[in-house]
Amino acid sequence: MPRRKALKVVVDVQFHAITCPGVFLAEQQDVFLNVELLGQRRRTKSVPPVFPFLFHEKLRFDKVFSHATDPIQIANALEGETLRIELVQLTYPGGDLLATYEDSGREFLFPTPRISPTYPGVDREVLLQRSYSFPGIAPKLEFSSRTIIKEVTSVSSHSSSSKKREKKNHRSSIAREESVQPNSYSTFEHPVEASTPHSTSRPSSNKKDVKC
Description:
5-stranded antiparallel beta sheet, Immunoglobulin-like
């Protein structure tokens, strides 16, 4: 099956703390962060509800952009990716949403006009938007991020689609042939054979890394 070059983005976000001087939560249940990036959702461990919230935890996100061939295309693709961070308190099943932060993947990972930050992994800060149930001023999230873009190989989607169409046509042809053949076991119910699911192969060995 033909293979083509693609670019994989691997993002490590180190969540340090959330600060909010002078603010005290009325409820005593633990809090945590829900983070959605590159179509994946992760959450941090739970910490006591006393500011500052000290997470000191790294979350990893990754995605293969099969049609990207250079970092500029990756940056443009990240413009369409949404980052969402939620500060949640376990006051009841499902949690109470205290504050949120939302931005495009590009602005979050590359806040400067350049593709590569001047100092990768440098500590940064953003203000969360508090909900109606959050007392006091907007909390501040302290974090650092590191993004790696590496070249991988992926199976051509066009080739995969062609294979599926050929397989479907082959099965239809067999079904038509069987339908015109006389069946001497008219009272016998033939079992229906379930199609075997195909596992998606993971990308093969990496060739080249481009660090941002």
